[in-house]
Amino acid sequence: MKERVIQLLDDLKIKYRWLDHPAAFTVDDLNNLDEPIKPIKNLLLQEDDGKRKFLVVMAGNEKLDLKATRIKLGSKRLRFASDRTLLQTFGITPGAVSIFGFLHEGSTNVEVIIDKEILLDEELGFHPNYNTATIFFASDKLEVILKKMGCNYAVMKLY
Q: Chain centroid to CA 9: how far?
């Protein structure tokens, strides 16, 4: 999967920085690395009936209010996707969720919700579909990447 992520960024002529690190399953794990990283949370949510799925991309130090988010999305009740759904949708396991999951064939019909606050950061970092590395690029390239992968996305204030 690393090769597909790098190929995508190279095709888009996006400069990136790659950082290998110990496995990071949580934001706290990233906070404990030697290199300062501003963590990003990538949360796969779904409606109870499973019809709609959302990848929420937000600052790692913020907490998502599921009820408020559900209202903003005009959605039914939301819950975190199961490990099985993560595997089917993005081909990954917990702790590795990121936008690059859209390189997996099961990722169709997932809506991306980006908190507008993270776009104010100079640089964003995402796991390349496994949690022992983070790839960084300029925040203004996030939407370019999502468009290239054919993602349906919205930018909004989540908190």
A: 16
Residues counted in the chain: 159
Burial class (CB within 10 angstroms; exposed 0-12, middle 13-18, buried 19+) of 77: exposed
- Distance, in Å, from the CA atom of 104 to the CA atom of 20, rounded to the nearest integer, reads 22
Domains of the chain: 2-156 (3.90.960.10)
Residue 61 CA to residue 38 CA, distance in Å, equals 9
Residue among 32, 5, 10, 30 nearest 104 (CA): 5
pLDDT tens readout for residues 64-81: 999 999 999 999 889 999
Q: For the chain, how big is the Rg over CA atoms in Å?
A: 15
